[in-house]
Amino acid sequence: MVGGTYDCVVVGARCAGAPLARFLARAGKRVLVVDAAALPSDQPMSTHFIQPFGMRILDELGLGDRVRELAPPVTTFVNGLGPHVIQLEFPSGGSCPRRTELDALLLEGAREAGAEIRTRCRVIDLIREHDRVCGVIVEHEGVRSEIRCTVVVGADGRFSTVARLVGAEEYYGYDGPRCAYWAYWPRPADYATTHDNAAIIVHDDDDARFVFPVNRDQLVIGMTFPSTDDVAAWKQDPEGQLTNAMRAHPRFASLVEAPPLSRALGIVKARFFFRRAAGPGWALVGDAGLFKDPTPGLGITDAFRDARALAAAIALGGDEPLERYWRQRDVESLELFHFARDLGEVSYNNPFTQLVFSKCSGNPVLSQRFVDVVERRLSPYEAFTVGEVLRWTFGALLRGRFSVLKPFVRAGKVGGYVKKELERRRKLVQRVLAPPPPP
Ligand SMILES: Cc1cc2nc3c(=O)[nH]c(=O)nc-3n(C[C@H](O)[C@H](O)[C@H](O)COP(=O)(O)OP(=O)(O)OC[C@H]3O[C@@H](n4cnc5c(N)ncnc54)[C@H](O)[C@@H]3O)c2cc1C
Question: Would you list the domain boundaries of the chain?
Fold first, then answer.
């Protein structure tokens, strides 16, 4: 029987829930974290890239060095589009730990800060008083019990039970147009010298192939391709399909000479969305509230970022900071959500993006803008000035490359839409900050 009254019950104990619990426990809050899974365990539906921005949040949590000890630092990121390659350097480094080890480390971080952890404990319902959520009903080894608290947080992933129970509405949602498969291979002993220990993503035709150096002396190697392709063949023989696809590419062939160390895992359908992330007595964090195309590898880092912001809101107390957290999350995420969507589009490798890559490849000043985007110092929609983009596009048109026009116009429309929506979202933050009208 789980009993007692907590400041916060966090449902889900992985990338979003465990850091939130550590932040809250360090702020002196009484926190219970429950997870339906038998933790520590793997989260197989994920690859592993933690952005340098995310590593800095782990440093704030006092966990960064433990992650760095676990997995080799990744300071080079190779981004290819057809024949054009942009190499980005991140002195502070990212990291690609396997989730079994990362999630165990995050969970231990929550426990050592003073959070209580209950695993194999599934939330099946919420306790409500009037319109306010004030606890959860859990099931553990067939026994149901009530746990009361001030705030319930759903950190329970994209199929969030908490989101369903509170009826958190979805917005900006769409069905992802791609499938992805990946598996683990031995990391060659000289990978650091031959490949700079780089994380690599290369788009060719409508496919993208990627390699991240992970711990256990392994590489995670995978491919994404349009859902309209022959998914049935992949489902029948994922390891064979993946191995053949990687062997067919000169950049990757030498890395998959040995057989894979694991089965190939895959995701063939995914819906990406924002969800309302706060209400009376409840909030959502991580994939429960915002799930985006994984192509640029933002999910883990954003879960850390939002856990930090939500912990600060919960520490302030009351519903208004929770609403502000939600609105601010939208402002900080909207451009990245659409950036991830752009990268995951089947038509990402088009004559216009090829033109942009051709200008940036080998140009340190322009390549630095990609670094600034990844480091969140620059909006992906302001990486290049209107003047630069017009000059490049008209130059291409003058050389008879009319195929740049359509994707150029489309990119402009997406940029305009995102800018307008961002303005709208900023106003919603201001509305929460505004003093209430006089009675
Ligand atoms: C194919 C793929 C590749 C990806 N690659 C990357 C990458 O390289 N880099 C990156 O940053 N992001 C990546 N992501 C995204 C990343 O995996 C997620 O953003 C991240 O796992 C979110 O963590 P989370 O804690 O919110 O949710 P989850 O990791 O889904 O954890 C949710 C937890 O909640 C628990 N739970 C669920 N329901 C209940 C319940 N009712 N009661 C109690 N517990 C419950 C579950 O058991 C689980 O442990 C990828 C995603 C996919 C699909």
Answer: 5-72+98-175+270-331, 180-267, 342-432
The CA 427 to ligand 1 mean position distance, Å, reads: 30
pLDDT attached to residue 4: 54
Please enumerate in sequence order all residues whose Cβ is within 8 A of that of 157, keeping only pairs 6 or more positions apart, or say none: 12, 14, 286, 287, 288
CA distances from 239 to 28, 110, 263, 270, 283 (A): 48, 36, 6, 21, 40
Q: How far apart are CA 18 and CA 34, in angstroms?
A: 10
How far apart, in whole angstroms, are the C-alpha atoms of residue 104 and residue 91? Answer: 27
Indicate if ligand 1 lies below 6 Å from the C-beta of 222. Answer: no
155: CA distance to ligand 1 center in Å?
A: 9
Which residue positions in the chain have pLDDT lower than 70? 1-4, 436-437, 439
Name the closest-CA residue to atom 10, ligand 1: 297
- The CATH H-level (homologous superfamily) assignment of domain 5-72+98-175+270-331 is FAD/NAD(P)-binding domain (3.50.50.60)
Ligand 1 atom nearest to CA at 54? 11
Q: Is 36 in the pocket of ligand 1 (CB under 6 A)?
A: yes
Residue 220 Cβ contacting ligand 1 at under 6 Å: no
* CA-based max dimension of the chain: 74
Residue found by looking up tokens 């969507």 in the block: 341
Q: Which of 297, 225, 220, 232 is nearest to 262 (CA)?
A: 220
Does a cis peptide bond (omega within 30 degrees of 0) precede residue 19? no
Question: How far is 388 from 358, CA to CA, in rounded Å?
Answer: 13
Shortest-distance Cα residue to atom 29 of ligand 1: 14
Distance (angstroms) between ligand 1 centre and the Cα of 264 equals 18
183: Cα separation from own chain's centroid: 19
Q: Distance, CA 1 to ligand 1 centroid (Å)? A: 27
Shortest-distance atom of ligand 1 to CA 122: 42
Q: What are phi and psi of 73, to 5 degrees?
A: -65, 145
Q: Which atom of ligand 1 is nearest to the CA of 287?
A: 26
Question: What local confidence, expressed as pLDDT, does residue 5 receive?
Answer: 87
Nearest atom, ligand 1, residue 162 CA: 41
- pLDDT value at residue 229: 73
Question: Structure pTM?
Answer: 0.97
